[in-house]
Amino acid sequence: MYQHVSKQRKFFNTHATKDLKFRIEQLKKLENILKANENLIYEGIYQDFKKSEFETFISELALIYHDIKDARKNLKTWARVQKVKTNMLNFPSKSFIIPEPLGVCLVIGAWNYPYGLSLAPAVAAISAGNTVILKPSEISSSSSAVMAKLIDENFDPSFFKVIEGGVPETTELLNQKFDKIFFTGSTQVGRIVYQAAAKNLTPVTLELGGKSPAFVTEYCNLKMTVKRLVWAKFLNAGQTCIAPDYIMVHSSIKNEFLEQVKSEIEKERFSFENENYTQIINERNLERLKQILDPQKVYLGGEINTSIKYMQPTVLQDITFDDAVMKEEIFGPILPVISYDSLDEAIREVNRLPKPLSCYVFTNNNKQKKKILKEVSFGNGAINEAVMQYTNSKLPFGGVGQSGMGNYHGEAGFKEFTHYKSILEKPTWLELPFKYYPHTKGKLKMIKQFLKF
Ligand code: NAD
After folding, report:
1. What is the residue-averaged pLDDT of the chain?
2. What is the Cα–Cα distance from 388 to 382, expressed in whole angstroms?
3. How close is the Cα of 369 to the center of ligand 1, in Å?
């Protein structure tokens, strides 16, 4: 591992990556490689998830292409030296801020969207002028192998290199000194990464998980709410970090909500044979989902077929915060429904859990909307929609508290991989005498008059 990092540091020190033309060319090259190899990418994803080309394109490739296009188009603006005002004390100086790359960056990806969660941070790092070592997840092994092949066959490893592997390889990587670590994964491993980074005071971005609630109030458009929620929850069989984890529904509409969820799921035909429905990544996760499922509370679904790693979309009713399913992030196709009578009480319950990555509010009542947005702290979210906030690159994406720190997408990603170097430049034709010794009472009076304090 050491030689990869040191090669990248050597290359970074040539200052080649500071040239905007170089960055734009590398981004274009990445786009071309992905476009030319889409079939290979679809195959890898299919082996890991049995996911359709359509879903891979909309949930992975389209977002990466968008990020690359956005960065290429806006890089000159993002990377420009910014002039700022200068205070009176420094007259007649000028002040400016130079965005500079951090250096050698480590990007660690999660398995649930193997391309998006690895390459989108890499695109941000490259656009900001860094070199990148990318460690995709060993769990989505086919996708990671394709990614490693495509990157390593086409990029100079002293600029962009994929290192495959699991815990031992990641541990070894974390023992190296990086200038930035960008991690996507669980809160538990996030802690390990944060501790490893502390040894070298390496700045980190942690994109973690959590239990993202969806509030469904009595003032929602129920038909649209159900349609959007069912899509967002069962996309990738619930293996989406920003999927609505559980529903807080007002008791007056609970029964109707459940009935409509049932008919929407039936309409979408998420059957075992259906190409539109993704499988669970591995048997371990399937077993974990089985363990947190209380058969007494199943309203719909619950069927599991281990041999083909499938789990039916499952809806649970009469759930309380004491149920096993409410004790951890679900990360699968189980939708617990909790009913509430008072919005205040519902918010109090949600706020007892760690700050979630996302929160969704389904209501057409402005007062309720504002109340939830004000009283619940979460990373990112949507009103009368779910998951789609992720696709707007103008919205910085990230968590808060246990769901993470830092954010990316669009300019936010560029900033995350950039140091803003502040400079004061003073001409030599004038020097005010105040700061120099001797510090007399007269000088102090003059300073106070000058600064108007
Ligand atoms: P994970 O934490 O198990 O693994 C993430 C990465 O860390 C992998 O590359 C893995 O190889 C590495 N890793 C695992 N154990 C390690 C250890 N002991 N030491 C060093 N490295 C280690 O997470 P996962 O199972 O791949 O992903 C699921 C989690 O990620 C969920 O909690 C989900 O919410 C979260 N997630 C968050 C986002 C986001 O954008 N915030 C996106 C996707 C997933």
Report:
1. 96
2. 8
3. 32
